[in-house]
Amino acid sequence: METKFPTLLSPLVIGKYVVKNRMESANAIPHFLQSAETYPAPDTITYYDLPNTLSVEDNAGGEVTWETGPMYEYSDFETRDKYRAFLRGNNAYSVLEGNGEGSILVVKDSYANSFIPYLVENYAQIGIVDLRYTVEKVDSFIQRGGYDKVLVLYSFSTFAEDTNFASRAGVAG
Fold it and tell me: Which of 104, 146, 143 has the alpha carbon at shortest distance from 121?
């Protein structure tokens, strides 16, 4: 008997969006590592130029403000840390507008930044929280955004080494 698994996510429709590539510049590589024997070919970062809007919460100084703009910070593709371009870096809490239905809260580390844009076709609202940058607990974000689902997406090493995850992911009280 064949086992069928439910489809949880619809794939991003590739032909619908413009594909962009950013190559790691050889100028960023120290000169003593630039020979073919000591340094592999530069990396290529491929992403889809999605028009969705990202709102980033800033609560510096005790006052909450929101900065709204594109989900990518294109100028960061020209810096040493190109992955900061995805979701405009690591922020405590952000909300990404999607094209689907329902909502999801993604509890993540920076490992998830390049994955989260692929969720825009499936959800109308994608909450994004990085517990390393907030003292708020997960349940307060769920209540704030009224999220239908929660996805925890960490690199294994960060998840395994994080001794504070359980207390920050727990119930506020």
Answer: 104
- Residue 104: count of CB within 10 angstroms of its CB: 23
Tens-digit pLDDT profile for residues 56-90: 998 766 788 899 999 999 898 888 788 788 999 88
Using the structure block, give the residue that is written with the tokens 């980033």: 56
How far, CA to CA in Å, does 80 sit from each of 37, 56, 70, 88? 22, 22, 21, 14
Give per-residue pLDDT as tens, 122-166: 999 999 999 888 888 999 999 999 999 999 998 888 888 887 777
Beta-carbon contacts of 13 under 8 Å, excluding residues fewer than 6 positions away, are 121
d(CA 116, CA 50): 12
How many CA atoms lie within 13 Å of 126's alpha carbon, on the beta-carbon side?
27
